[in-house]
Structures
1.
Amino acid sequence: MITRDEWLKALGESVKPCDPDSLTINEIARQFDIGRQGAVARMRVLVENGQAIRTFKMVGPRRVPSYNIIAKARKRR
């Protein structure tokens, strides 16, 4: 059974704006010539480390999870 918090989180994600510049797991796998499960595992680690964020993208009529790499600010001398 879904909890109230899970339900509210799902509802919140359903109205987030889409980012057409983000990449889906399938696009990441194709671009870097790795398997889909490898792309899933690597993106999970990047999100956990704060190096990527999960967002959404429209692919045809569907709204699918996608990812953006976070560019770290360079240190100024």
2.
Amino acid sequence: MITDHKNLIAGKWYACAFADDDRVLQWGAASIYRYDGDGCWSNEGGEEIDRLFDPYLQLYVAMDAADAYAQQP
């Protein structure tokens, strides 16, 4: 698990999770995207993704606003 987006590896897929009000990471609600490097992300179709939906704030936030990232196999 990675909590600092600066430690992400380009070309890897990550689950991007947010913590609830009790600071418990909610992996079940995580979105999965590929980190392409230099702050760029993409989805399975290769489309660039520039924001995530935060289910607790109920709004879109920057990709580096996730509380944690888990590299996918």
